[in-house]
């Protein structure tokens, strides 16, 4: 099993054309400690300095941060930095009996264990519903009777990769899964949500996972600091109580290139940044810069460098 260590920097900058008297925010920007992921350091810096702030753990075990800025401002910057060690795919999990068993045995309603009872929440459809006739039809081609769970999940991953076109800006945060199914295009969040709806349509527990994907520059090219983006994928519950994460945007199981931030039932459970402001401002602008750099690289240190700002519209969604 391969292991990689990354420095991660995620900077969000909001600017307004009038004074903001008060900003409340909640963010999911601190990676999780997991069996295959170890957080070596993590900070979240906010400018202007908040008058109140706190950190906590939500109902799903994610790290969240709250802040309240009462200093008048026309610019708000939230910068998260972390160093994370990530392991590759657990081969024992994907060749184990839980993964090789018929997919029907992974239905929490069938498993009947304490872990299954906890996973049952992730079978329930959203409101408004995401499980439509088109979703059920798409899933029925994958989840045929008796098929091994790992085979069905990898087939679903490949089908979404082949059948849907990645197109930045083609969807919005309000775009429903049924619309994505009709258009056959979207971004990583959309493809994760399509996969989740398919899994839930056959009674399997599925969760939405957010994080980052390390990207390597083309051969002979230098890495551009700040040119990465947030990412999202899905995970399915297995009858041994573990979750198998997979990335339909890239047709692969989640591995040492993925850094996990948080998970929930849907994107709305774990947005990177969300909040409320009080202002007479009529215009606002958001710039997002993300960098995921292997520590062995000689690239600039996110703790001290000032990265170029890049647009990640479509590839990542933020609210405030």
TrEMBL record:
Pfam families documented for this protein: Bact_transglu_N (PF08379), Transglut_core (PF01841)
SMART domains: TGc
All copies of domain Transglutaminase-like, residue ranges: 180-250
Disordered: annotated span: 293-320
Cited InterPro entries: Bac_transglu_N, Papain-like_cys_pep_sf, Transglutaminase-like
SUPFAM superfamilies from the UniProt entry: Cysteine proteinases
Name of the protein described by the UniProt record: Transglutaminase-like domain-containing protein
Species this protein is from: Gordonia alkanivorans CGMCC 6845
């Amino acid at each position: 099993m391969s292991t990689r260590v990354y420095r991660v920097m995620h900077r969000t900058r909001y600017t307004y054309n009038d004074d903001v008297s008060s900003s409340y925010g909640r963010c999911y920007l601190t990676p999780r400690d997991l069996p295959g992921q170890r957080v070596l350091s993590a900070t979240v810096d906010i400018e202007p300095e908040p008058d109140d702030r706190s950190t906590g753990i939500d109902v799903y075990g994610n790290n969240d941060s709250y802040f309240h800025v009462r200093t008048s401002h026309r610019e708000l910057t939230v910068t998260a930095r972390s160093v994370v060690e990530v392991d590759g795919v657990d081969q024992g999990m994907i060749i184990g009996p839980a993964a090789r068993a018929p997919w029907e045995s992974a239905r929490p309603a069938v498993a009947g264990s304490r872990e299954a009872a906890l996973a049952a929440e992730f079978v329930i459809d959203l409101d408004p519903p995401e499980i439509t006739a088109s979703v059920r039809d798409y899933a029925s081609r994958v989840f045929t009777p008796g098929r091994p769970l790992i085979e069905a999940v990898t087939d679903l991953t490949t089908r979404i990769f082949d059948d849907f076109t990645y197109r930045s800006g083609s969807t919005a945060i309000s775009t429903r899964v049924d619309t994505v199914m009709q258009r056959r295009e979207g971004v990583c969040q959309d493809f994760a949500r399509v996969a989740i709806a398919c899994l839930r349509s056959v009674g399997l527990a599925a969760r939405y996972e957010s994080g980052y994907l390390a990207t390597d520059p083309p051969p002979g090219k230098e890495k551009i600091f700040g040119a990465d983006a947030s990412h999202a994928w899905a995970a399915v519950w297995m009858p041994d109580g573990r979750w198998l994460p997979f990335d339909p945007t890239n047709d692969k199981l989640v591995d040492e290139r993925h850094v996990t931030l948080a998970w929930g039932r849907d994107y709305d459970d774990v947005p990177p940044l969300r909040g409320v402001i009080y202002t007479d401002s009529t215009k606002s602008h958001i710039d997002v810069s993300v960098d995921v750099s292997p520590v062995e690289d000689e690239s600039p240190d996110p703790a001290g460098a000032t990265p170029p700002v890049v647009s990640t519209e479509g590839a990542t969604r933020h609210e405030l």
